[in-house]
Amino acid sequence: MGRTLSLLTRLPRFEDDGVTHRRDCECVRCDAGYRPTEHERAEARRRHGEHKAREQVARDIVRRKERERMKLAVVDVYVDEQVRAANEQVRALREARDRAAADERLAQLWELRRAGLSLRDAIDEVERRASGATSEAAAAVE
Questions:
Q1: What is the average per-residue pLDDT within 10-25?
Q2: For all residues of the chain together, what is the average pLDDT?
Q3: Residue 92, in any domain of the structure
Protein backbone atom coordinates (compact mmCIF):
# COMPACT_ATOMS: atom_id res chain seq x y z
CA MET A 1 0.00 0.00 0.00
CA GLY A 2 1.13 3.45 -0.82
CA ARG A 3 1.59 6.24 1.57
CA THR A 4 -1.15 8.93 1.49
CA LEU A 5 -0.02 12.47 2.02
CA SER A 6 -2.23 14.98 3.64
CA LEU A 7 -3.69 17.39 1.15
CA LEU A 8 -3.01 20.22 3.57
CA THR A 9 0.76 19.80 3.30
CA ARG A 10 0.55 20.70 -0.36
CA LEU A 11 -1.47 23.91 -0.03
CA PRO A 12 0.37 27.06 -1.05
CA ARG A 13 1.75 29.40 1.60
CA PHE A 14 1.59 33.08 0.77
CA GLU A 15 3.46 36.18 1.80
CA ASP A 16 1.62 39.04 3.57
CA ASP A 17 0.43 40.36 0.22
CA GLY A 18 -1.69 37.23 -0.24
CA VAL A 19 -0.43 36.66 -3.81
CA THR A 20 3.24 35.76 -3.75
CA HIS A 21 4.20 32.28 -2.65
CA ARG A 22 6.62 32.23 0.31
CA ARG A 23 10.14 30.95 0.01
CA ASP A 24 9.28 27.90 2.14
CA CYS A 25 6.14 27.09 0.12
CA GLU A 26 5.90 23.41 -0.76
CA CYS A 27 2.92 23.50 -3.05
CA VAL A 28 2.94 21.57 -6.31
CA ARG A 29 3.59 24.71 -8.35
CA CYS A 30 6.64 25.72 -6.31
CA ASP A 31 7.96 22.14 -6.24
CA ALA A 32 7.76 22.17 -10.02
CA GLY A 33 10.11 25.18 -10.07
CA TYR A 34 7.64 27.96 -10.70
CA ARG A 35 8.63 29.99 -7.65
CA PRO A 36 8.45 33.78 -7.85
CA THR A 37 11.71 35.54 -8.65
CA GLU A 38 13.23 38.11 -6.33
CA HIS A 39 12.17 40.84 -8.74
CA GLU A 40 8.56 39.55 -8.65
CA ARG A 41 8.71 39.41 -4.86
CA ALA A 42 10.00 42.99 -4.66
CA GLU A 43 7.33 44.17 -7.09
CA ALA A 44 4.62 42.38 -5.08
CA ARG A 45 5.91 43.97 -1.82
CA ARG A 46 5.88 47.41 -3.48
CA ARG A 47 2.33 46.94 -4.80
CA HIS A 48 1.21 45.60 -1.43
CA GLY A 49 2.77 48.62 0.33
CA GLU A 50 1.06 51.04 -2.07
CA HIS A 51 -2.24 49.24 -1.58
CA LYS A 52 -1.90 49.47 2.22
CA ALA A 53 -0.98 53.17 1.97
CA ARG A 54 -4.06 53.87 -0.19
CA GLU A 55 -6.25 52.01 2.28
CA GLN A 56 -4.78 54.02 5.16
CA VAL A 57 -5.35 57.30 3.34
CA ALA A 58 -8.93 56.28 2.60
CA ARG A 59 -9.49 55.41 6.29
CA ASP A 60 -7.96 58.74 7.32
CA ILE A 61 -10.25 60.61 4.94
CA VAL A 62 -13.29 58.76 6.31
CA ARG A 63 -12.21 59.52 9.90
CA ARG A 64 -11.63 63.20 9.08
CA LYS A 65 -15.06 63.48 7.46
CA GLU A 66 -16.64 61.74 10.44
CA ARG A 67 -14.90 64.15 12.84
CA GLU A 68 -16.17 67.08 10.77
CA ARG A 69 -19.68 65.62 10.82
CA MET A 70 -19.47 65.20 14.58
CA LYS A 71 -18.28 68.79 15.02
CA LEU A 72 -21.17 69.99 12.86
CA ALA A 73 -23.58 67.87 14.87
CA VAL A 74 -22.27 69.35 18.11
CA VAL A 75 -22.62 72.84 16.67
CA ASP A 76 -26.15 72.01 15.48
CA VAL A 77 -27.10 70.79 18.95
CA TYR A 78 -25.59 73.92 20.52
CA VAL A 79 -27.39 76.20 18.08
CA ASP A 80 -30.67 74.33 18.62
CA GLU A 81 -30.30 74.75 22.39
CA GLN A 82 -29.55 78.45 21.99
CA VAL A 83 -32.56 78.93 19.69
CA ARG A 84 -34.78 77.06 22.16
CA ALA A 85 -33.50 79.22 25.04
CA ALA A 86 -34.01 82.41 23.01
CA ASN A 87 -37.54 81.33 22.08
CA GLU A 88 -38.29 80.62 25.74
CA GLN A 89 -36.94 84.02 26.75
CA VAL A 90 -38.99 85.80 24.05
CA ARG A 91 -42.10 83.90 25.16
CA ALA A 92 -41.50 84.93 28.79
CA LEU A 93 -40.97 88.56 27.77
CA ARG A 94 -44.17 88.55 25.71
CA GLU A 95 -46.11 87.12 28.64
CA ALA A 96 -44.67 89.81 30.91
CA ARG A 97 -45.59 92.50 28.37
CA ASP A 98 -49.15 91.13 28.14
CA ARG A 99 -49.45 91.01 31.94
CA ALA A 100 -48.18 94.60 32.17
CA ALA A 101 -50.61 95.73 29.47
CA ALA A 102 -53.49 94.08 31.31
CA ASP A 103 -52.59 95.60 34.70
CA GLU A 104 -54.86 98.60 35.38
CA ARG A 105 -52.79 99.86 38.30
CA LEU A 106 -49.67 100.02 36.14
CA ALA A 107 -51.60 101.89 33.45
CA GLN A 108 -52.79 104.38 36.09
CA LEU A 109 -49.23 104.76 37.39
CA TRP A 110 -47.92 105.57 33.89
CA GLU A 111 -50.75 108.00 33.32
CA LEU A 112 -49.99 109.84 36.59
CA ARG A 113 -46.25 109.89 35.86
CA ARG A 114 -46.90 111.39 32.41
CA ALA A 115 -49.13 113.97 34.08
CA GLY A 116 -46.07 115.10 36.07
CA LEU A 117 -46.55 113.52 39.52
CA SER A 118 -43.47 112.24 41.31
CA LEU A 119 -43.05 108.49 41.55
CA ARG A 120 -43.88 108.44 45.27
CA ASP A 121 -47.04 110.58 44.79
CA ALA A 122 -48.13 108.52 41.78
CA ILE A 123 -47.73 105.25 43.71
CA ASP A 124 -49.67 106.64 46.68
CA GLU A 125 -52.48 107.80 44.36
CA VAL A 126 -52.67 104.40 42.65
CA GLU A 127 -52.76 102.63 46.05
CA ARG A 128 -55.50 105.01 47.24
CA ARG A 129 -57.59 104.35 44.13
CA ALA A 130 -57.05 100.59 44.47
CA SER A 131 -58.09 100.52 48.12
CA GLY A 132 -61.12 102.66 47.31
CA ALA A 133 -62.11 100.32 44.48
CA THR A 134 -61.81 97.25 46.71
CA SER A 135 -63.87 98.86 49.45
CA GLU A 136 -66.53 99.82 46.88
CA ALA A 137 -66.53 96.27 45.56
CA ALA A 138 -66.90 94.90 49.09
CA ALA A 139 -69.80 97.27 49.76
CA ALA A 140 -71.48 96.22 46.49
CA VAL A 141 -71.21 92.58 47.44
CA GLU A 142 -72.90 93.18 50.79
A1: 78
A2: 86
A3: no
Contact 20, 44 (CB under 8 A): yes
CA distance 83 to 130: 41
Count of residues making up the chain = 142
SS3 66: helix
Which contacts (CB < 8 Å, 24+ apart) does range 93-100 have? none
Beta bridge partners of 21: 14
Range of the domain at 112: 103-142
**Structural domains in the chain (count):** 1
Domain assignment present for residue 66? The answer is: no
Residue 94 lies in a domain: no
Residue 70, in any domain of the structure: no
This prediction has a pTM of 0.47
DSSP string, 72-141: HHHHHHHHHHHHHHHHHHHHHHHHHHHHHHH-HHHHHHHHHHHTT--HHHHHHHHHHHHHHHHHHHHHHH
**pLDDT for residue 92:** 97
User: Rounded distance, CA 46 to CA 103, Å?
Assistant: 85
